[in-house]
Amino acid sequence: MSGGRIVAGVLAPHPPHLVYAENPPQNEPRAECGWEMLRWGYERCRRSVLALEPDVFVVHSPHWKTTQGTHVLGVPHFSGLSVDPIFPNLFRYRYEIDVDVELAEAIHHAIEEDGLVAKVMRNPNFRVDYGTIASCHLMNPAWDVPIVGLSSSTAFYDFGDDVGHEEMISLGHATRRAIERSGRRAVVLSSCSLSHRHFTHESETPEDMSREHVYHHGQYLWDMRLLDHMRRGRTRQIADEMVDFTRQATAETKEGSLSWMLAAMDFPTGPAEVHAYGTVIGTGNAVVEWNLERAEVTR
Ligand SMILES: [Fe+2]
Q: Is residue 126 part of a domain?
């Protein structure tokens, strides 16, 4: 099969707070409200992306960390209870996840073709990480589109930020090639926040928005710089500045999700749509859509 393509990419951060505040039936804790700008941004993004009728979401998560290369979820169905280790009071989520195993295997093959270390996760009892779950839930709460989940290798930590970044660029190229061969209409999801220094104390009512604000102005300036690049189609410049950004803003891009996604999309030059920006316990989060079908129409 061939003729597949990436129809959209989304910067799709995974704060469990956003799932908590939506009160979906899968999540045990109940919230009054909270983080509306981000949640309503996700709703707009979701409508736009699901209208493309994707066959699959391919997600790269900072919270599935593997020490030996990139792993790919490779079991047709996962179910279980995901409890956020940092916020068990907010996220105790019963998940049922369908996986596009054929595409997962194709991505695994393409990664190995490029000389990178990769492995297919075949353990049916594997507990899927909350980063993957939260991003995919927020993009598609109906879970009626299968996913492929990619782990984040520790290349950034083991070999340095710049080496990790370059490795994720290669991973993105391999992912793109596999999708093109597969015939799938895929949406790629970068499951990460931007600036990521956060408060160490939680307010008594987690959704008390009088306590929510940027951690500090420097982080905010870095986030605005990146979002400006995105809105102007400067994805190559983002890649050039990624290592500085990650260091200076203590960004969650360290695990490579955004580097991977930009490369998978082959560094689009059309403007991305920023559906929302907001903070969660002080971290900077943006919901940003690259709608590659629409970009082609208007080019
Ligand atoms: Fe995270």
A: yes
